[in-house]
Amino acid sequence: MTHARAERSAICDLLDQTGPDAPTLCTGWATYDLAAHLVLRERRPDAAAGIALRPLAGYTASVQNGLKAQHPFPELVGMVRKPGGFYGLLPFLDEAVNTLEFFVHHEDIRRAQPGWEPRRLSDDFERLIWKRLAMGARLMLRKSPVGVVLHRLGGGVALGGAQEGPKVEVTGRAGDLLLFCFGRQQHARVDLTGDEDAVARLLNASLGV
Prior knowledge:
Layout (H helix, E strand, L loop, with lengths): L2 H16 L12 H13 L1 H4 L8 H14 L2 H9 L3 H5 L1 H20 L12 H18 L6 E6 L4 E5 L5 E6 L1 H8 L9 E3 L2 H8 L6
């Protein structure tokens, strides 16, 4: 089983456990909203562009709410569980596009619940996350007002953020560094080293793709 399929299965199991009204780290979204988002990005390509493009966000939100109206929560979870669209036809595309997406959203649910603890990922999954993160760090950190030096526990350094001015060193495991760079700074188990003001600015910055 690929990491994308494993994370897909795990997030669906967790959605089944939490039900439709559990909190997530996605501002304004409960688990029902997150399930609809995952279905939309795979099965409604006409609306998926609004996830990244603000001018189209209204249409995307309308389609997402429509999916909630049309499908009971268990039905949406069942649709997430089985890859749809191109991802169902091309397994390599599922692995390339959805591995980090499902990991982050899995943690969006886990880390919004009381008493959560970080998962210990397999060495192979850690290496894969770090490889993808190191390649995309400059894109994810492009809005950072300060320079960022990512240090992966176990080895590896990646740079991003502002090229001039103070720099903040962020140290942690690959999964937590990924969550940090995806804008989940307050919920990532990392150590921050640098000027106090620079650290505060980085923690409050809008990060992510």
